Amino acid sequence: MTGYRQVLTVPGLASLLCVSLLARTAITADVMALTLYVVLGLNLSYVAAGGITAALTAGVALGGPLLGRLIDARGVRTVLLLTILAQVAFWASVPFLPYAVLLPAALLAGLLMVPAQSVTRQAITATVPAGRRRAAFALESVQGELSYIIGPALVILGAATLSPDVMAWVVGATIVAGGAGIALLNPPVRSDGERTATRIPRRRWLRSGMIAALIMAFGATTLLSGVDLAIVATLRESGQVSWAAVVVVVFGVCSIAGGLVHGALTRPLPTWLLLALLGMLTIPAALAHDWRWLCVAVVGAGLLTAPTLATVADSVSRLAPAGVRGEATGLQSSAQSAGFALGSPLVGAAIDLTVPAGGFVTAGLAGLIAAVIGYALSRRTRAGTGTPPAADTRQAMVHL
After folding, report:
1. The pTM is what?
2. Residue 276 has pLDDT above 60, yes or no
């Protein structure tokens, strides 16, 4: 645990992780808040709710690299203030907008979502020494798991006890509060030696190594999104759907444990191998048809989830030159958002065509395919000729 203590003594990082957790928990819950508002508040179908959440998710995926590039050019605080104003306008008006207006408004809100995750990752890269970043990114991944466990559950509880309208306002206010907190902290996204870093053409850094990391980020979240749906479908078939939340919590707790262990290791596994193992350990969950056995079946995949996401973030941070770090981390966020958006319909189609257990197989295969592609691209990078890469880049190649 010494590594974690050293990370948390980095000036400002502990405060940033706390405030970022607040923002990320609300951002994680925003899809659930909008779904419940459309279904319960507007009395529309789940298809209509899916349209709103798809618009929001598409906006987040498209906006990631755009906001990251703006951070590179204008700094963190300017972008945070812009996105905070956009979130205030959207969430304050949600209960008053008809569906036809809410749909494009959700897309715009996604485009200008508070970049809490991206800023946190950039700050870790800028302030934490390279030898300690594995522990720092492990904490960041654990933070993400906590947000997924807490956020949607609180929204469901709040919508049941208060109202969907009120919960929409609460989620929006929490996103704004978290963004404002990060803006007040104004974390550095470049180290002292990187202050004069200039923008590098995309063709010089968006190469096979970075593409491998982005593909694996996409594959990991495609798998995770699909697993959530497969859990619900499996338990629904056995008449135990009310226990799905327990299985998801077990998965999340195992991920947190795995992330903490990963951050303390001296020699972590490469990203492609972690993702491949995650995919392979997901497939056997198809054999479980009872919530108790499903809790056991997801332990292995859960233990590898946070480590996989942490190594992806670490690799991107090492491969991205300082002058384009914002855009690179934005692309990573976009890849992960796209994976979350694709995972559910992909696995849903497999479930409809086969049986609920087919959802776990499809999700696991998606992770395996991404791992194989990532491995092939990373080997291509190491086998290439030309100018030797910098130390951080060489280490990133090892991590891939």
Report:
1. 0.86
2. yes
